[in-house]
Amino acid sequence: MQPVQLFCWHFMAYPYLAKNFDQVHETGWVTVPNSLWDNKKARGLYQEYIDQLAYADELGFDGMVLNEHHQNIYGLMPSPNIIAAALTQRSTRGKIVVLGNLLPLHMNPLRVAEEYAMLDQMSNGRLIAGFAPGGGPETFNYDIPSADSREKFWEAADLIVRSWTEDGPFAHEGRYFPLRYVNPWPKPLQTPYPPVWIPGSRSPSTMTEVAKRGYCYFLSSRSHGGETHRAQQEFAAVLEKHGHRYQPFRFGILMSAYVAESDRQAREECEEGVWYFLKNCLKGHLRREGRQLTFGPGVPYIPAPAWKEYLKNYKPGRKLLGDVENWEELEASQSIIVGSPETVYQRIWNLIERAKVGNLLIQFHIGNMPKELALKSMTLFAEQVAPRLRESSLSFFEQEFSGVNIEQQKGASL
Amino acid sequence: MSGRFLDLKQGKVWLLENGRGTPLLYLHGFVDVHSIKESWMPFHELLATGFRVIAPAHPGCSQSDENKDIEAIEDVIFHYLEFLDRLKIPQFDLVGSCVGGWIAAELAARHPEKIRKMVLIGATGLFVQGALIGDVFMMAQPERGSSYAGLRQMLFSDHDHPKAWELFPDGMGEIEDELRRYQMLRFGSRIGFKPPYFYNRPLANRLHRITAPVLVIWGEHDHMVPLSHGEAYANSIPQAQPLKVIPKAGHSVHVEHPELAAQVISDFLTAKAGNSR
Asked: Which residue pairs, CB below 8 angstroms and at least 24 apart, start in A404-410?
């Protein structure tokens, strides 16, 4: 058994928007004008962000997390693999989690197989390979037809893993990506292949596909009320159905945290960055203001019967995370956990205990937060929160999951 | 109204039939029978006073089965060839609106002999440099969580048009209406949500094959398919009448002005061939 795995996630937001951005612009995604990009300010930004991730490795985080976004201010990583490549040379211990490459946006899945294999070799076997289908904004970014995007996604994901596990050359007779010669050089270093993580938002079909293949399910929701616990139970039930037993490291969640010397100081220090994140970065994504692109009839990727089920409980105009109006509402969403080391420990521990989750992917740099504050928060977390979380989680997991094999998958069993 | 299923190899097709006389195949668009309404709208009923109107629901729309083999317009054409074989109507009048108009034009270019006369209303399908077809998918994502003003503006002459409000209310309409709308968007995404966006570039150079007399109708204020697309259709089809522009109408001519649209169409379809130009 191992303790909870604590990862540092960096979204690499564009931090130089004017104060009136929210009043002037409809969205932070897809159509947010790139004339706002300011080279005078942004020079050196990637270096600063990479430094923060390298520092997380020094602090002893279990890994660094990156993901792919396009044409937006929320995350400046159209190619997370480029940042991951830099991290292979700037870090020595932690996992490099790319969560993930958006497979339907890649012309040829073999390219993903090749780049991930390179990253695994370059990092001495530290890659966690994330595959994601992309959501609404990405549909518009690259004009990805929605109706068959899920089928396309799974064909690509399976082809990549097959290319890592089956000797080539072989022909892939797929529907969407037929290839005559599948034969990647290099192969990944980890055997049988790097751990695979797949994000989902509680759709039963995604959980089932992830469970069948032995991968880790990553809940992409940003808020953690009762839903997180329910997602864990649902996934555990799906695993059970496919002959596996749930264990904490088959499951991961995303949250944001800010730690300072006291609760009051924490709030004071992070509040500007938090509001920047909620009102600017989430506009167009998890905010009803403007035009929300993430989910809806314009990105019809779920089959019609599932959409009908969704409509039955749909409340038009309901609040999303970015619509919170005050600090109390934000606290209640359990999305961004802010406070002293004691407060942050307690709140995260409650979540772990309730949701039995083993992979915590934590965003420390929030919105336009100055780097000094992000680094201070990471340090306090690593020194005063992480050790306690590790200690409590280890004994809790040992008790709850004694005798359960926590090794990553032994190969897709399709 | 009578509805029935046709069983094709690739799945069931739901179709409505109404009226007597010359068979008229009607292919629907986004604001139409099957895509919003379960049953006929006034425009179709007016047409049915002079014709036998046959309106199939596109694959995945209304009660028609979804067909995963549909990835491009070519696959839709094949679907309709099978449908027509089964209907056993050797020749018919063809009327299509929006995406339905695109399907009609493609069908007529491939099988001119099947078409007696054809009418296109605000049809997508052509590439016209500098005149992008509007992004109906992005507009289908509500603003402020519940406003469909953008969608109404795209599909009608004005977002405040009473018909627009009736068919695309803010918030949520009847679940079944919402579902049909979703199904239509999902069908549309199979052929239109990728480059090329609701067009088939080679179509322009194939339109000369169409032998039937053709009428092209366009709303003066079509915010989805620019008027220049109407001109391109009218200018590229040999037997086409001059483009008929309907004033004070948007993309949904047949919904905004059902009487006028039905009148113009039945006049054209019943006129003796040869006196068109």
From this structure: A404/A245, A404/A247, A405/A247, A406/A1, A406/A2, A406/A247, A406/A248, A406/A249, A406/A358, A408/A195, A408/A214, A408/A216, A408/A249, A409/A195, A409/A196, A409/A213, A409/A214, A409/A215, A410/A192, A410/A214
